[in-house]
Amino acid sequence: MDQSGKTSKTEIAPGAQTPEENSALSANPVGFDPETELRVRKNANWFTWIAVFALLGYILETINTEKEWFFSLAAPKWLNSLLSGSQIPAVLLLIVLVLAFGLIAYFSGKGKSLPYLIGLLLYVWDAFAALLLQDLLMMVFHLIVIVGLVIGLIYLKRLEKGKLEESKL
Predict the structure, then answer these.
(1) For residues 19 and 87, is the Cβ–Cβ distance under 8 A?
(2) pLDDT > 60? residue 18
(3) Domain contains 21
(4) Phi, psi angles (nearest 5°) of residue 7
(5) Which of 69, 96, 110, 160 shows a CA-CA span of 20 to 30 A to 169?
(6) Does residue 121 fall inside a structural domain?
(7) What is the C-alpha to C-alpha distance for residues 117 and 111, in angstroms, rounded to an integer?
């Protein structure tokens, strides 16, 4: 209380931190952002969905050979169109791509940027195969997924930068 009978509020110098700000800063270390880490994991799941949709698309196309699915991979279809007759190389390529995207999803979810970048480039390559097939709906689907993957790569780089800053402390 001051002389007038009113309680006085403690003044803080400009630029100084309040006790609440100090406790908030100590709770979240500089550079670490759990929100960014969660977004990286969510965007790495794109690779899991790519693998699942590739298998699902192949199974559905095998059951109904008259219909093609826009969410499947284009590279095996393109290879099949080049080798008209033998489906074995296309099926082998599909298996390799599904396994690759599964591994990429696993390591990308752990915050590894090299597998993420390889997966992104692999899917861009598959988008070019969709372009060669002249499948507009498949190309649009690939572009949507590529945008999601690029956003994930941005978050991954932000996470790596935050971990680098954190390790310097």
Answers:
(1) no
(2) no
(3) no
(4) -80, 140
(5) 110
(6) yes
(7) 11
